[in-house]
Q: What sequence folds into this?
């Protein structure tokens, strides 16, 4: 059965490119390698479909039972080519005839060249696709012949595709053939495979009715293997699809993948099997513990080597772990009760260090398999100690084991809740959700259910869909309001964050009003939450004086609160007031406190706030470290909402700078994800970014059209729409639409006047007034004040933008001498930050003002963009080039060259740009080559 491919765009492009070359007479070969079940065969099938009727297709498949039969695979491949074989010269025809007759006797080289000639002859009638699947099971002779031919098709219309397992011993046979490794599918692609499988399965159905738990569990268990996803989906029961029964914990008994893992396990010596199963029981074992276990069990070194070579374990540093959850669950499901008990007993013996005591207690209890409250209490004590020390990766496992051994239902529920909270703090959102699924009636009373809902909603805000999180969190707040007002306020804060992320201002106001109706807060954190929610709600309602007072209170309270989330909210309050220094200070403290606490989601959220605020404060648009750090962390911990927002911020930052290549790269990864998850705030930044690129490329009409798009096609997030007003005003004024520009500015003016006169925001307001001014004297007054305020705020890049606009106005007013000073200042700043399009605009204005300025060297034009779309540039579009003296360098190379010329070492540059020193060294070598210099001294002289 043919299955649709998901998440294989890179691989299909590589194969289609090879097929295109073959159509043009320049063939090639490719070896597709991957783990069992990862989709190698499906990719070969997709290649056959892509080849279409224009190609003749032949293929063979390795079969385990034929591995020792000489040339069995070649025999299968050549059978359809009997007519072409008859046209070969006698020597070649005879060599192939011995293969087809089953009596191979030809000299190897004659046989190899005969196959080459046969493929070439076949390709004379049109391009040929030759494929070989499951190469790891091909007989050695067939593999050698096919690889020999594949290495010699460069000048023939022939494409050769191999598919092999990553762990197969065929590396030598396929030497010299490019290898394309299939990685496991990411979560989004895995979900699409699951939806296809459930929709076409015998039970039918959809993921929409499962509440997300079933999909999460299957995707997590399958570890990115499409075959595993389909096998799990095919075995689902109606009760599991409806959510009435728990998700599967292992592949079904008839699974091909499960059988494969079982065969590998049974092929091991008895001692190696015991060591492997011990690793399955513990998940991760130190090398010293493994060595003690081998000695205690009487295993010899060969057993340990066999376990290492089986592919079932992963040896990393000082530890040993099972390869992945799919292998672990399969082996544990197939293990007998006696085998499991023996593994636990062996671990209880060898985990003999004092720091291993909790794990030793657990395995000792697991030998009996019976609940034991006394042992559970010891594990809970150890979990609490690990939790207080911030070792959440240890504490959640201990809480889970304590809960498993607990008899009393309510205590067990509390321990599962602790396990969920600590799993979430350690960055394991899926594990946290799995623990929350254990919190079920009748042991779960209203308060416990509300606590579970609060955590579930918080996870959904960061890792799922914020619109889904809002009702969950509001319901939790209502349940908690009577017994725990502080927890209720926290639930409402996260509900408000979710509403803002989804662009639902009406719901945000309802949440703020409900928070205000709760009993008064008794601590600074509670007061901060109330002040922040009240201030933001007042801003939405246009009551700016009230908003300024409340937000100021929230920002002041943040300095004395250690909680990372509260400090992040205080940073947002300071940002809303335009207080740049306090915003950066509070955001940095939020990140630092989250890191000290070891709380991964809190750190990710703090980095999200820090990056977004820094981007919108108008400071130099170099890559923001917080965004890059946050993106890496969000991806590592599967916080998809945070990752999407970081991509949006990075895209906007690059667009401010006019860097179309970087912005489009981020937008390409953002497209679809924001809409699918309902992340309106991220989508709004994704719409704003192309408008900024249009302004940088001197396309104000396109920029205005984007920023004025209605509804979800435009800036559907109200705060983002407000922040973008200065860009809209500039675009409209440059197109001559002063009336619309004045109407757009009026709301921005009321906000800046009412919220307070922070220098950065007041500077933008003054610039708008200057652009709208009819008289030159009035414009000059506003421009001059805007420049002073930009400098006071430290907003260097916005300063340059205002210098450019001021210089343009002066030049158009026939005052070229006065214009040149402002335009030179703008040009210097733009060149300093590698803002190529903006430097080009400043240079053009200077030349128009009568000053001789060398044009930027061969900077390719930024491609035209439709007003309603933000599509990525084509692959043939070159990246922007740096201006003037760095015309031969990319923007990244120019940035590195400046830092090197200023005396920074490779390691210092790497730390600032979040790259490796080796990458910096590579860039500098290219810089020296392109500029024709040989040392840093020459580089410094050139820059001066």
A:
């Amino acid at each position: 059965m043919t299955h649709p491919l998901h998440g294989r765009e890179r691989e299909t492009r590589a194969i289609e490119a090879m097929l295109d070359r073959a159509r043009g007479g320049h063939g090639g070969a490719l070896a597709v390698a991957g783990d069992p079940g990862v989709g190698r065969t499906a990719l070969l099938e997709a290649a056959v479909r892509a080849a279409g009727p224009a190609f003749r297709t032949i293929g063979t498949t390795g079969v385990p039972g034929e591995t020792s039969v000489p040339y069995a695979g070649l025999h299968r491949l050549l059978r359809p080519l009997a007519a072409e074989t008859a046209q070969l010269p006698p020597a070649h025809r005879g060599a192939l005839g011995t293969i087809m007759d089953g009596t191979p006797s030809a000299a190897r080289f004659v046989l190899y060249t005969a196959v080459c000639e046969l493929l070439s002859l076949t390709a004379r009638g049109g391009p040929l696709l030759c494929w070989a699947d499951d190469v790891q099971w091909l007989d050695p002779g067939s593999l050698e012949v096919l690889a020999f031919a594949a290495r010699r098709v460069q000048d023939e219309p022939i494409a050769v595709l191999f598919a092999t397992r990553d762990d197969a011993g065929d590396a030598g046979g396929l030497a010299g053939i490019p290898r394309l490794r299939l990685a496991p599918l990411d979560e989004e692609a895995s979900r699409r495979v699951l939806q296809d499988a459930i929709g076409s399965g015998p039970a039918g159905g959809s993921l929409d009715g499962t509440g997300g738990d079933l999909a999460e569990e299957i995707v997590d268990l399958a570890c990115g293997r499409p075959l595993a996803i389909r096998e799990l989906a095919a075995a689902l029961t109606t009760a599991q699809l409806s959510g009435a029964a728990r998700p599967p914990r292992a592949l079904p008994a008839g699974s091909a993948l499960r059988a494969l893992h079982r065969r590998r396990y049974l092929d091991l010596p008895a001692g190696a099997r015991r060591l492997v199963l011990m690793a399955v029981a513990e998940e991760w074992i130190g090398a010293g513990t493994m060595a003690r276990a081998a000695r205690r069990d009487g295993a010899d070194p060969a057993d340990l080597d066999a376990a290492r070579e089986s592919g079932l374990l992963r040896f990393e540093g000082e530890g040993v772990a099972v390869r992945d959850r799919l292998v672990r669950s399969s082996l544990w499901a197939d293990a007998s009760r006696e085998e499991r008990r023996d593994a636990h007993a062996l671990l209880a013996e060898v985990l003999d260090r004092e720091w291993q005591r909790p794990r030793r207690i657990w395995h000792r209890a697991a030998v009996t398999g019976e609940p034991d409250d006394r042992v559970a209490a010891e594990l809970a004590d150890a979990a609490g100690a690990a939790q207080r020390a911030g070792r959440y990766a240890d504490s959640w496992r201990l809480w889970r084991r304590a809960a498993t051994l607990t008899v009393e239902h309510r205590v067990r529920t509390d321990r599962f809740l602790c396990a969920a909270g600590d799993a979430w703090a350690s960055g394991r959102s899926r594990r946290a959700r799995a623990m929350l699924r254990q919190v079920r009636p009748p042991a779960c009373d209203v308060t416990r259910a509300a606590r579970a809902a609060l955590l579930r909603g918080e996870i959904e805000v960061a890792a799922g869909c914020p619109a889904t999180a809002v009702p969950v969190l509001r319901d939790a707040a209502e349940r908690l309001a009577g017994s725990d007002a502080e927890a209720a306020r926290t639930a409402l804060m996260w509900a408000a964050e979710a509403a803002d992320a989804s662009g639902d201002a009406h719901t945000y106001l309802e949440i703020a009003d409900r928070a205000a109706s709760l009993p008064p807060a008794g601590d600074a954190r509670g007061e901060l939450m109330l002040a922040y929610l009240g201030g933001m709600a007042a801003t939405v309602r246009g009551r700016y004086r009230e908003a300024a007072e409340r937000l100021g209170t929230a920002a002041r309270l943040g300095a004395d609160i250690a909680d990372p989330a509260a400090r992040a909210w205080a940073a947002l309050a300071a940002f809303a007031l335009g207080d740049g220094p306090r915003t950066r200070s509070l955001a940095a403290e939020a990140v630092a406190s989250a890191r000290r606490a070891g709380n991964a989601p809190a750190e990710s959220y703090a980095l999200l706030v820090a990056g977004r605020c820094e981007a919108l404060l108008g400071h130099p648009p170099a890559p923001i470290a917080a965004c890059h750090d946050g993106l890496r962390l969000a991806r590592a911990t599967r916080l998809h909402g945070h990752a999407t927002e970081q991509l949006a911020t990075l895209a906007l930052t690059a667009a401010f700078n006019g860097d179309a290549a970087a912005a489009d790269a981020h937008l390409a990864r953002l497209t679809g994800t924001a809409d699918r998850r309902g992340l309106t705030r991220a989508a709004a930044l994704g719409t704003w970014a192309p408008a900024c690129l249009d302004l940088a490329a001197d396309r104000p009409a396109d920029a205005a059209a984007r920023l004025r798009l209605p509804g979800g096609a435009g800036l559907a997030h109200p705060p983002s729409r407000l922040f973008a007003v200065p860009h809209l005003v500039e675009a409209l004024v440059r197109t001559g639409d002063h009336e619309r520009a004045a109407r757009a500015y009026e709301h921005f003016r009321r906000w800046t006047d009412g919220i307070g006169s922070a220098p950065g925001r007041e500077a933008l307001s003054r610039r708008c007034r200057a652009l709208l001014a009819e008289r030159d004297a009035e414009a000059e007054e506003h421009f001059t004040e805007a420049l002073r305020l930009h400098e006071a705020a430290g907003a260097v890049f916005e300063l340059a933008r205002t210098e450019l606009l001021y210089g343009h106005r002066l030049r158009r007013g026939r005052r070229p001498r006065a214009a040149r000073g402002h335009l030179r200042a703008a040009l210097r700043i733009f060149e300093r930050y590698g803002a190529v399009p903006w430097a080009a605009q400043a240079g053009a204005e200077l030349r128009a003002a009568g000053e001789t300025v060398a044009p930027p060297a061969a900077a390719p034009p930024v491609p035209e963009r439709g007003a309603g779309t933000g599509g990525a540039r084509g692959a043939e579009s070159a990246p922007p080039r740096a201006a003037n003296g760095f015309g031969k360098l990319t923007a990244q190379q120019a940035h590195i060259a400046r830092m090197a010329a200023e005396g920074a070492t490779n390691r210092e540059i790497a730390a600032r740009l979040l790259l490796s020193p080796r990458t910096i060294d590579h860039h500098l070598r290219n810089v020296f080559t392109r500029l024709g210099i040989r040392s840093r001294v020459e580089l410094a002289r050139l820059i001066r």
User: Anything to note?
Assistant: Strands lie at 28-34, 56-61, 128-133, 158-165, 179-182, 284-286, 313-316, 319-322. Confidence is low (pLDDT under 50) at residues 857-885. The first helix runs from residue 9 to 23. The first strand starts at residue 28 and ends at 34.
